[in-house]
């Protein structure tokens, strides 16, 4: 591989406090040098980025790849192709596959399959309990040895006693528990956020309290046990406040939200739009504003997609019957860039939420442009506008409330170890080499 020299790149790396126009050299799959003026190897190929963003490869901490078991919705191949097209170089995949990723064998299968077909790096998240049944803890040690990076029964909340034991057990491995915080006794049967709109539509609601009492319970148990806790898909103002206070008290808790929770509200459900049905549900304008404030002040560490592909069979049906969740890998960058454009957060904060923090929380490579690190890189055109169409999606599913909408900002080049995994414009393709 010839060395690649990016020039006129807006180089952003929150860990080094970098946000400047400069050059970055990739040699042998490694970031070899970064600076305003660099000595350039003679055989290097120069790519003028004309001010576009060059950032550490984005990492999505919360993705459902559906393989094994539900390959009609998504596969490791299509899901990671969608990730690469969205600017991601790594994804962590949730355990609720069929069978559930609750044993070393399944974790190894996912990693083996990823080695064969994945575009991006794949980090399996294993289940906390056998079969996600909430009764018996899985073998954390075996699963970590097999390559699992964290534990979660995402989709199915743990009971309080099991959450306590999971945090205690995880602590002995310094492992991370990711909580889907939901009090089922308050949410059961709910179809959308509980409020004026749920009453008007005649749909059973899910109160914000169903999430908040569970978040409070989980941070309290993290405090009790000293275990590392990560709260998935924070959707309410109250949850943000509870996490803010827990962090102030020194509890080891981190949190994520998803772009839909700061981009749209429960109003998207009007018309019984199943593409706006998810769990936790889309909330109110006050919640949306509080989520943005949580990202701005660092209460929320991570923007994750909760990419949840479903086939048309599960989505083009009555609202009551429709599956929960939307795809997100190919819309996360433009939706998150809206926070920068509107002045709520800086470009550096965005990169922290989408790359540096996820890498630190999971304890995986990436998240930085430090010379010597693998050349996992995303190049983002923050201005380019496009319409999200069915044809443009790499995911096998298209359950997105943003379909048909005009979005601004997208990845134009994604590299792993210096190799292009997404390069629709042929920016870094070897066949463009002048000979
Ligand atoms: Zn969940």
Percentage of helical residues?
25-40%
**Strand fraction band?**
15-25%
CATH class of the largest domain: Alpha Beta
Do you know the CATH architecture of the largest domain? Alpha-Beta Barrel
Shape, per Cα inertia axes: globular
Number of helices: 13
Count of domains: 2
Q: Which small compounds were modeled alongside the protein? A: zinc ion
CATH superfamily of the largest domain: Metal-dependent hydrolases
Gyration radius, rounded:
21 Å
What's this model, at a glance?
The protein is α/β, with parallel strands linked by helices.
List the helices and strands and how they pair.
Layout: E1 4-13, E2 18-27, E3 30-35, E4 45-48, E5 53-56, E6 58-63, H1 76-85, E7 88-93, H2 104-117, E8 121-126, H3 140-146, E9 150-151, H4 160-171, E10 176-179, H5 184-187, E11 192-193, H6 196-201, E12 205-206, H7 208-225, E13 228-231, H8 237-248, E14 253-257, H9 259-263, H10 285-296, E15 302-303, H11 312-315, H12 332-341, H13 347-362, E16 377-387, E17 406-416, E18 419-422
Parallel strand pairs: 1-4, 1-5, 6-7, 7-8, 8-9, 10-13, 11-12, 13-14, 14-15
Antiparallel strand pairs: 1-2, 2-3, 5-16, 16-17, 17-18
The protein binds zinc ion (ZN).
């Amino acid at each position: 591989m010839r060395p690649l020299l990016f020039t006129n790149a807006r180089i952003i790396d929150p860990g080094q406090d970098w946000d400047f126009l400069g050059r970055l050299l990739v040699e042998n799959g490694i970031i070899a040098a970064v600076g305003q003026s660099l000595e350039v190897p003679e055989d290097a190929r120069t790519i003028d980025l004309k001010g576009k963003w060059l950032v550490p490869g984005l990492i999505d901490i919360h993705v459902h790849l559906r393989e094994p078991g539900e390959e009609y919705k998504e596969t490791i191949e299509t899901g990671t192709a969608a990730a690469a097209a969205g600017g991601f170089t790594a994804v962590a995949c949730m355990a609720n596959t069929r069978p559930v990723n609750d044993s070393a064998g399944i974790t190894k299968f996912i990693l083996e399959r990823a080695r064969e077909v994945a575009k991006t790096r794949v980090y399996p998240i294993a289940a906390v309990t056998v079969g996600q049944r909430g009764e018996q803890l899985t073998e954390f040690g075996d699963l970590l040895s097999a390559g699992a990076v964290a534990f979660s029964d995402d989709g199915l909340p743990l009971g309080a006693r099991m959450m306590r034991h999971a945090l205690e057990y995880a602590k002995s491995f310094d492992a991370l528990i990711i909580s889907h915080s939901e009090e089922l006794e308050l949410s059961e049967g709910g179809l959308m956020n509980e409020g004026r709109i749920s009453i008007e539509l005649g749909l059973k609601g899910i109160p914000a309290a169903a999430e908040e009492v569970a978040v409070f319970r989980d941070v309290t148990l993290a405090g009790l046990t000293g275990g590392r806790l990560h709260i998935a898909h924070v959707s309410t103002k109250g949850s943000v406040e509870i996490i803010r206070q827990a962090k102030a008290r020194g509890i080891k808790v981190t949190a994520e939200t998803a772009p839909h929770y700061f981009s749209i509200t429960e109003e998207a459900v009007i018309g019984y739009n199943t593409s706006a049905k998810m769990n936790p549900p889309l909330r109110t304008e006050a919640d949306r504003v509080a989520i943005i404030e949580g990202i701005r002040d660092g209460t929320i560490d991570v923007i994750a997609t909760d990419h949840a592909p479903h086939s048309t069979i599960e989505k083009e049906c009555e609202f009551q019957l429709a599956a929960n969740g939307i795809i997100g890998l190919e819309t996360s960058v433009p939706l998150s860039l809206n926070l920068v454009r509107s002045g709520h957060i800086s470009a550096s904060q965005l990169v922290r939420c989408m790359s540096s923090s996820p890498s630190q929380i999971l304890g995986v490579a990436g998240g930085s442009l430090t010379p010597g690190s693998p050349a996992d890189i995303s190049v983002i055109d923050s201005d380019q506008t496009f319409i999200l169409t069915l044809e443009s999606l790499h995911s096998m599913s298209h359950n997105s409330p943003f379909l048909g909408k005009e979005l601004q900002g997208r990845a134009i080049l994604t590299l792993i170890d210096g190799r292009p995994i997404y390069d629709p414009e042929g920016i870094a393709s070897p066949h463009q080499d002048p000979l």
